[in-house]
């Protein structure tokens, strides 16, 4: 059984992107979940540490920890040389990870996954117990085109000896990588999003004694509903169940829930057409009448899959999928509006006790 960290009542959706060194934190108070007044915005705290680069980009999150990337190459679209840092935005503690120099033919990032169990470890019998050892796993998947059954990747964890190891993610289904879509964790597994399926694997396996050619990770492939090719998709995990939301530019939203992990059976939880939304604010009525509904989707409310937040111009809009009601939650400051084109949501949850990290000297 996996132990859980005790959480406080506050959660955050961090809005960031691959091209920004800044981000916006959207704070939630989980009670009551439907009140838009329990939401506020703040800037991502600037991490000022000795030896830490200034222009950092958020590429992952787990609990209250953020995974930052710093590009060492002059070409901002060339990802062959970069540095990664695990940071706690609350305590300002940072941990520098070993550098990874990619082959010359690898110039673009496909996906980066980040998962950690900061206060727990696993023994030889796969039992989890309290420990002060920080245990994190990072996987880097280079960009690859076309449908493949084997994805080359690089893995870093205590079970790889603390160094980057080249691995192969082997999928029983041929699939095409869904690039720069956040990798989702369910239980002890990371799930790589692809067109038509999710490929899940356990990253906490001891590969420290094997050679690179020996490391072939067999993935569980979960077929997804037929919506990943043309839709905008994001995922959420609630009570160890995976939820997927897809939307069209017309304002139609569908939310699916994975009922059976083994068979890949999904059920449709919500299906709302653009004209079915009920705006509860005059500003929303005017916006809907003038333009297609919604710009960027922020993601699920951290406490429920029945509430999502979207960005409509400079307003963050609460959308209750159960009642089809919309209302304005808050208005963004002007300085934050430029964060959102091409940005991605990362969910952060604050434990009662912040996760400790070694301080970067």
Automatic annotation (TrEMBL):
<dbReference type="InterPro" id="IPR055290">
    <property type="entry name" value="At3g26010-like"/>
</dbReference>
<protein>
    <recommendedName>
        <fullName>F-box associated domain-containing protein</fullName>
    </recommendedName>
</protein>
